[in-house]
Amino acid sequence: MNQDKEHLRLLAIFHYIVAGLAAFFSLFPLLYTTIGTIFIFVARHPAAAGPKPGEELPPEFLGWIFVGLGSFLFLLGIAMAICILIAGRCLSHCKCYTFTLVMACVECLFIPFGTILGVFTIIALSRESVKALFSAAPL
Predict the structure, then answer these.
(1) DSSP-H helix ranges across 27-127
(2) What is the rounded CA–CA span in Å between residue 34 and residue 27?
(3) Please, which residues have CB within 8 angstroms of residue 105's CB and are 6 or more apart in sequence?
(4) Fewer CB in a 10 Å sphere around the end CB: N or C, the chain?
């Protein structure tokens, strides 16, 4: 029983670390948002860009596509990081078995760290002794 609690504690710590990494990497789509904002600005203020004769500026809708896509990917990454953080919290308190198992399966999509963490979490959660810990925990 103590070994299971120790494994869950370590898995919770690793979930916190992967959540931090996911939050960090979710900042990269903001580069698309920045590029899209520049495209929109240049399309609305062509004199500021100083176009050369015969040079065509990017259309404004292309900027909006970049802004929308970058914002969507950023929000998706932050939401995923928050869910991983909550899964780590659930592991440390032995609560929400189903949510934690689903998040472990979803984490397997994120190669390499998420896959490793997801597989180890699934293995740990599959043990009968761990299931007993989750069912014995107070809500």
Answers:
(1) 30-44, 46-49, 60-93, 97-107, 113-126
(2) 11
(3) 118, 122
(4) C
Q: Which of 88, 102, 83, 74 is nearest to 17 (CA)?
A: 88
Q: What is the CA radius of gyration of the chain?
A: 22
**Contact indicator for 81, 101 with CB cutoff of 8 Å:** no
| Separation of alpha carbons 97 and 90, rounded Å | 8
Which among 130, 94, 93, 125 has a CA at the least distance from the CA of 108?
Answer: 125
User: Tell me: the pLDDT tens digits for 46-88?
Assistant: 776 666 666 676 788 899 999 999 999 999 999 999 999 999 9
